[in-house]
Amino acid sequence: MTAVPVFLYHSVSDSPPGWLAPYTVTPRAFTEQLDRIADSGLTVVPLHRLVAALHGGPPVPEDCAVLTFDDGYADFYWTVAPQLDERGLPATLFVTTGAISVPGGPPGRSLLPPAGMLNWRQLTTLDTLGVEIGGHTVTHPQLDTLPGRRAYEEIARCRDPLEEALGHRVVSFAYPHGYSSAAVRRQVRRAGWTSACAVGNAISSDADDPLRISRLMVMADTPAEVFQAWTRRRGAPTAPYPERLRTRGWRAYRRLTAVLGRPAGSPPRDG
Prior knowledge:
Blueprint: E1 3-4, E2 6-9, E3 11-12, E4 24-25, H1 27-39, E5 43-44, H2 47-54, E6 64-71, H3 75-87, E7 92-95, H4 120-128, E8 132-135, H5 148-157, H6 159-166, E9 172-174, H7 182-190, E10 195-200, E11 204-205, E12 213-217, H8 224-231, H9 245-259
Parallel strand pairs: 2-6, 2-12, 3-4, 5-6, 6-7, 7-8, 9-10, 10-12
Antiparallel strand pairs: 1-11
Helix pairs in contact: 5-7
């Protein structure tokens, strides 16, 4: 089984809003992490290469990694994309479509707190530059706490504006907060997405579930030695593995708090 670290980033900035700061790495740290990936001998491959392998296609290289980014923050355009372009690295950007604005227009509407987000013109430019654009719902809800119809609308409706703006099919999806369930994954398949990324804080593999691809979330306080271990395919479990009892309990709690109108906050880091 080939172990594949799939790195998950959110924002790369020196001055994020307070709510986003724990999920933000500085540009300097990001540069150092890209250097560590290169120094480890890993080849960064597009997510679709891993997805093809998961669906029985050609295997991925033995020493490879994948870069993914969630939500669609404006710093991806100004800070991340130039570094990726300079190094010739592919990446996938999962976009919360309700948060994207028209150029010069007001911020989009989503459940994400205020932050600088991409606009549609920047998104199409990134697509032209070779960044894979994927769906991340319309408003960024916890999908596994929603009634079935509402969850499906979030999963399916985010594709239309992306395909209209980009002019081609969009096939990759990521769960907000990393949360899914068997029912949610069935809806993702029904909506026509060919892959979906979770979190799991585990190393993916060519035997992973294509609708529950494990990723390693890079946080503001991720120690350098931990990131280094990930580049060497150590320091985290390798997927696939059975869903943790703790994860099931956390889902049940979040569903209860959602029903009571008091949605729970951030998950445990291994959730």
